[in-house]
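Internal tracking record. Fields below are filled automatically when a chain is submitted to the structure queue. Please do not edit lines marked as system-generated. If the sequence contains nonstandard residues, flag them in the REMARKS field before resubmitting.
Queue: standard
Priority: normal
Entity type: single polypeptide chain
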Amino acid sequence: MLFGVFAVHSPESCPLNNQKSRRIFLEIQSKLKANVKKFNIIKIIGFYMSVLEHEWIIILDAKSAHDIEQLCIAVGISSISTVKIVPMNDFSVTLKRLQSQK
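SYSTEM-GENERATED OUTPUT FOLLOWS
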């Protein structure tokens, strides 16, 4: 199942402006990779950021939003950002559902 993880932080807690956040940020990628199996993450599809909006977007294929929540805590994302976990569908899946309802 696909999930979007939307993490937003303030300019004051941005890794560009805050030493503690910078240390956490520099370790996130290795911590994500080290913890994917522990938290039932099937695959990290993508990890994107919008620097000026202070937002990270991570697309994951995972079994549960609860597992993603625990992952965000374990790797430190939730210590510097507010996190929203959103179930997502591929466009083609949604298109097929709509076409079958004709």
